[in-house]
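User: Before I run my own analysis I want an independent prediction to cross-check against. Here's the chain; please return only the C-alpha cells and, at the end, one sentence I can use as a sanity check.
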Amino acid sequence: MYLHLGEDTIVKTKDIIGIFDLDTTTVMKASRTFINKAEKEKRTVTVSFELPKSFVVCKGKEEKENTVYISQLSSTTLENRSKTFLGYK
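Assistant: C-alpha cells:
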C-alpha cells in the first residue's frame, strides 16, 4: 500500500520507519541534528512549501540512504491515513 504525504508525493507504507510531529520532536537536539544532517546529505524531500507540520522517515537500501519527507500534513493525519489503508480503522 501507499501513503499520500501531500501534493504529488506518495511512499510505500512498508518503507515507513516513522511519522513524527515537527513541533514536539524538534525540541530535542538529536532530532534537529538528524534533520540537519539529512538536509546536508540531500536526503530530504519537501512535499509542499506550506508550513511544515511533520516529517516521515522512509528506509532506503541502506541506513545512510533513508529519506526524510517534510510534509504540511499533521502527523496525526498521516497516521490515520496509514491505519485506514492498512485496515486498522
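Sanity check: The mean pLDDT is 91.
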